[in-house]
Amino acid sequence: MSRLSPVNKRRLELFKANRRGYYSFWIFCALFTLSLLAEFIANDKPIAFSFQDELHFPILFTYTETYLGGVLETEAEYRDPYVMNLIEADGWALWPPLRFSHDTIDYSYAITPSPPDAEHPLGTDGGATDVFAKLLYAFRLSVLFGLALTLISSAIGVTVGATQGYFGGLVDLLGQRLVEIQTGLPILFVLIILASIVEPNVYWLLLILSLFSWMALVGVVRAEFLRARNFEFVRAAKALGVADRTVLRRHVLPNAAVATLTYLPFILNGSITSLTALDFLGFGLPLDAPSFGRLLSGAKSNLQAPWLGVSVFVTLALLLTLLIFVGEAVRDALDPRRALAARGDRPGEASEIVNLQTA
Fold first, then answer.
1. Are 175 and 246 in the same domain?
2. Are residues 52 and 161 in the same domain?
3. What pLDDT, on the 0 to 100 scale, is given for residue 337?
4. Do 253 and 350 have their domain in common?
């Protein structure tokens, strides 16, 4: 079993010392895990059912109504009493706690949106779909989309910033001018134009947002590489004829990664916010996709149903607040001077840790 180095051990202690960020991290992990299990919590299909002495899993596999002894060749509609009678006549069914998915229409309600009740804990929206199920699926989609966008943005931003900072000179000058030109573009208008030209989907929207989201990281990475390339061990490696790729990967990048990591939770926060804003304006994901932006748009159109706006606002605010607190804890863990000064430790101890990090 590998043991943490003294530097990483100290960083972990500093991360835990920020109680607000530490507990926010675990709360976020718990909520994200629940969202990953959304099909087992809110679904219009049974988790499993027994039919003719065989166990079946509708969440994983598709079964037609004719397979269950019905007449239709299409997928079985498990909320249909006729289908459930076919199953229960020869077996049993295990349902999730909430028998509605994010797109399940409850036709039993004549007036929509309907307020919260025993069947719908957070009520229904204007389309007679369950609000809690939509929030659960939207939470998962937003976080997964944000994580993917953060990874892509980080890869592009680190590559561009590292190239500028390490080589400097004309490369840095041209790179800075290109970044300034792209930064000066009205990003929101460009995103709206691009999103209105093509049919929206998750992958295309991810590509569009990736064109601009990496710019927030370039300046930080560039500054770190400009500083790190002047370290004595970097100069010694270059004087010995070590290839630039090796110097970047083994010597410069590890020292510059600290500042980069502090930005990742905030980039994730901004990615989720961007997706929500585009969905709210109608230029984001498809209409049938569960998203916070669509829920906010529906709440705006149904001001007489306050449970819609309150539920999505609380969920979105909780998610973004947790990520901000986690980002602050990561920043404190990777910035010992800030953390130790806040705790009143000795200045010499902070200097010692900084020397360990840059050694």
1. yes
2. no
3. 57
4. yes
Residues 88, 166, single domain; the answer is no
Owning domain of residue 177: 6-38+133-358
Helix (H, G, I), strand (E, B) or coil at 92: strand
CA nearest neighbour of 229 among 257, 248, 249: 248
Please give the Cα distance from 141 to 29 (Å, whole number).
15
Question: Counting beta carbons within 10 angstroms of the beta carbon of residue 95, is it exposed (0 to 12), middle (13 to 18) or buried (19 or more)?
Answer: middle
- Looking up tokens 């989609």 gives 141
pLDDT at 351: 42
The number of distinct structural domains making up the chain is 2
Rounded-to-integer distance, Cα 167 and Cα 157, Å: 16
Neighbouring-strand partners of residue 48: 94
User: 59 in a domain, yes or no?
Assistant: yes
CATH number of the domain to which 338 belongs: 1.10.3720.10
224, 227, 230, 232 alpha-carbon torsion, rounded to 10°: -80
- Residues 235-258 have pLDDT tens digits of 787 777 777 777 777 767 776 677
pLDDT in tens, 35-84: 999 999 999 999 999 988 889 999 888 899 898 888 888 888 898 888 88
Host H or E run for residue 251 = none
In the structure encoding, which two tokens stand for residue 211, read together? 């064109």
Can you give the pTM of this predicted structure? Answer: 0.84
350, 240: one domain: yes
